[in-house]
Design goal:
The structure holds two protein chains of two kinds.
Chain A (H helix, E strand, L loop, with lengths): L4 H9 L3 H23 L2 H18 L9 H21 L2 H16 L5 H20 L2 H11 L5 H8 L3 H19 L4
Chain B lengths: L2 H13 L5 H13 L1 H23 L6 H13 L4 H14 L2 H17 L1 H4 L1 H6 L2 E7 L5 E6 L5 E6 L8 H5 L8
Antiparallel strand pairs in B: 1-2, 2-3
Helix pairs in contact in B: 1-2, 1-3, 2-3
The chains are: A mainly alpha, B mainly alpha.
Chain lengths: 184, 177
């Protein structure tokens, strides 16, 4: 029978490395996707994902189960990713290269030439619009869109109220819609 | 506020699955019957779909084995004491960042406003004369504070029209404190 996250956490707290390995195998992909959504750079996202699990391992002894394990883990990931994003913002050249790299990788699955042009323009503009959002607004969009988390869980991860999550989502979507209205 | 505006306010929460069953039903039936709100819903759905595609499409599958072996290496690696200390300090100050600004500002404000209480040498040099009261005869009194124990009282006689030499020779009694 598969153990719950909390049971694995208790095993980690008593020193079982294999339990932490199991938790990492459950969440490494999701954590990576959330971080990639915030950073848009695979190497940086991988580095932050590694750092997230390293910190989780070091701090798991103090985890009391006040929130679910994944919200606790995502909180670490989002905080590290937001810090990394602030550093990334200071280096626009890197960002430009990463975005081109990302767009090229998506073009590998192109179909109809007209649809391809439209999709490419939409993606290009979408990525620009997402990157124009503040880290906090981007975080709510990523957690909601990629992970489909509830307002309550997003609030726990970001350390804010459900009302704040709702208003940030509304603002972020409005911003994105204003910039992408001609493509939608 | 009309019905459409009310529905529009609940639309995102409805699409995000954050409304209760009864509220959801109200929004759903309105959207089904209102072309404008239906268009708003379509717009939001399209945006969400496009967002999902862009955010998720580029995420590659991460193989767990190399991820774990790298993580295990980092776990086994001993952290230098200065890096550990830096992380701890960063942790204290980084989250939540803005929360530190308010108490810091208050402390700074108190320090600035009460600096002379903490800097006696500054206070002794900072003599100031202030008019503290006007007595019943229309005269002002100035106090020159030199330090905590020494205060000089200065009577300020106003040169009013009609005052003459005689008046100056027979001064009025001083103000009573």
């Amino acid at each position: 029978m598969e153990l719950s996250d909390w049971e694995l956490v208790r095993k980690c707290q008593s020193g079982e490395m294999s339990a932490f390995q199991e938790l990492a195998s459950r969440y490494h992909q999701k954590v990576f996707m959330v971080i990639l959504g915030l950073l848009r750079n695979r190497d940086d996202a991988m580095e932050v994902a590694q750092e997230t699990f390293l910190r989780a391992y070091r701090k798991i002894g103090g985890f009391q189960g006040g929130s679910s394990f994944y919200t606790w883990l995502y909180r670490i990931a989002v905080n590290l990713a937001i810090d990394a994003q602030r550093r990334q913002k200071r280096n626009p050249l890197d960002f430009r290269e990463n975005m081109d790299d990302l767009l090229e990788s998506q073009d590998e699955v192109a179909r109809d030439p007209f649809a391809e042009v439209h999709d490419r323009e939409l993606r290009e503009n979408m990525i620009k619009a997402i990157n124009d959002l503040t880290p906090e607004h981007k975080a709510v969009i990523v957690l909601r869109t990629i992970e489909g988390l509830s307002y309550k869980d997003i609030g726990e991860i970001l350390g804010c109220s459900e009302g704040t999550v709702m208003s940030r989502l509304h603002y972020a979507r409005k911003k994105l819609h204003d910039k992408l209205s001609s493509f939608l | 506020m009309n019905e459409c505006e009310r529905i529009e306010q609940s639309m995102e929460r409805w699409l995000d699955g954050e409304l209760g069953a009864a509220e959801s039903e109200v929004v759903r039936s309105h959207v089904d019957s209102c072309a404008n709100c239906g268009a708003v819903q379509q717009r939001l759905v399209k945006l969400e779909r496009a967002l999902g595609n862009v955010l998720a499409a580029a995420a590659p599958r991460i193989e767990f084995a190399p991820f774990w072996s790298e993580l295990e290496r980092r776990i086994d690696e001993k952290t230098p004491w200065h890096k550990d200390l830096r992380e701890r300090i960063h942790g204290w100050f980084a989250v939540p960042r803005t929360a530190w600004a308010v108490p810091a500002l208050i402390v700074l404000l108190i320090a600035v406003l009460s600096y002379d209480s903490y800097l006696p040498f500054w206070r002794s040099r900072n003599n100031s004369a202030t008019v503290v009261s006007i007595d019943a005869y229309g005269r002002s009194v100035a106090l020159l504070r030199e330090d905590e124990s020494k205060t000089t009282v200065i009577w300020l006689y106003q040169n009013q029209e009609g005052d003459d030499e005689a008046a100056e020779e027979t001064p009025q009694p001083g103000p009573a404190f």
